[in-house]
Amino acid sequence: MDINFLIKAIAAASVSPIINTVQHNRTVVEIKEKLGLNSAQPPEKFDDVYVHALVEYGFGKPQFEMNLKFFDNKKVRKIFSNAFSNKPLDFNHQEWNLLRDEAQKAKIDVSQVQEFHQAFVNVAKRSINPGQLITNVELQEHLNKFIEPTKQSPYPDEFKALIEEKTKAFCGRVFVFNEFNDFLKKHPKGYFTVIGDAGMGKSAIAAQSVSKYKAICYFNIRAEGRNTPDQFLQSIRHQLINRYQLQNAENDNLPTLLTKVNEKLAAGEPLVIVVDALDEVEQPGSGNLLDLPKNLPERIYFLLTRRRYAQNEKRLLTEEVPEQQLDLTANKYEVWNRKDVKEYISTFINDEPEHHGLKAWIQKRNIQPPYFIEQVAQKSENNFMYLYYVLPSIARGDYQNLSLEELPEKLQGYYEQHWKQMKMDTPDKRTNAIILCVLVEVGKPISCESIARITGRDEYDVLELLSKWLEFLRKQKQILEDYYSIYHQSFADFLRNQPSLKREKKSNNIDWQEVQHLISDSNDQLWASLKPDEDEDE
Question: E strands, 189-299, where?
């Protein structure tokens, strides 16, 4: 379809004022006829549905020319097609994040993306076999999710897997929730911040808080490129609009949204908003991180988590809003932290059938479980990420030749031990460091093929190395291809400080600025590795 012809047709039709719905629909039919589209015959194929949707969406919209050109873009069509194929009616699912990111880059308001999605759905419902993408049965199943909201997940789709993972084996942290509950009782609003070192369980506390307080939430994840003010506002805005049925709020900033929510809250009802990992936010300047408001309406509370930083680096300035910090590293919490770590180890040993290898390891060495728990707790230095790695490693049989005393000390020690096991400092392995370097430098999910292209290595060799470091990586599938990113920021920090990695980074002739240019915040590496069909219309 010639998009310029469509734009001219809509522009010509828009000269006359539309009086009512009937006249509007008649004009849409006339435009379709000019484009050679048969309004009486429901479209069958995806492309046909898409063109009908372009007409129905574009007519009567402000800035329709810019919006139509955006949706007619070949790349945007591909993203839309993939997202619709997987999640036809659930625009809130993470499958649609790529499309929303593209809209942001093109300066298209996300509300217009949602409107076009709705126009497409409306056409698909009228089609013979809705767009050849959803059957009548599938359509009904999706509709039932909207009719019976109690069956839906209580968590935002983009963070559902993370929250469920973090809360699955959650235990302890009673002292944190007691202090936050006291804060809620004592203050009419405010900011409560949980501070701790890498691996101390801040994200797990955040995830459990979402479940416990039925909170609105946002998790900053640098490794996935999900850590900017725009992404934060878009997610929070969507959650607030859906929960409180806010009207005309699609373009509201956070203070305006919170003011509208305050008017919807029942007497005595608080709203808790959880924001994890402020230290991973990418935001220049000196203003509040994520543009958090200096003032808050009554009954609005933020529960924040972050690493420690110097007082002069503070990025949360408020005006007469109560603030409280809970530093997990403080001496007064040492006993509580150790108690929670021991409970976690005990739960891991006794409550997880798949970890029977850990029991066997303990029994083979004639170690009493209480002694094992005490020694591992000491080695962990109250770091849950250490336990996350070490306990499964023992259960898998990675430490069959080591005694309890020879287990690594601290999280850093675990990373170093694995680095030595992989012989990364030997000449024949050292050059593999550049592959890990790409994961660190890119800082976002990236495919094996893209890593091979950047480093000039064989794709099979890249995949082989990644498989040996898989416990430290997050693997996710995007459009039939696996993408890799670093699981925890502490491991990225460890890699940055490895001399061999620094050496390979310098010796390899890679333009890292160009790499970052090719791989944008919205995972453009996906499209950099895909070549469009030559015979496809622009």
Answer: 190-195, 216-219, 271-276
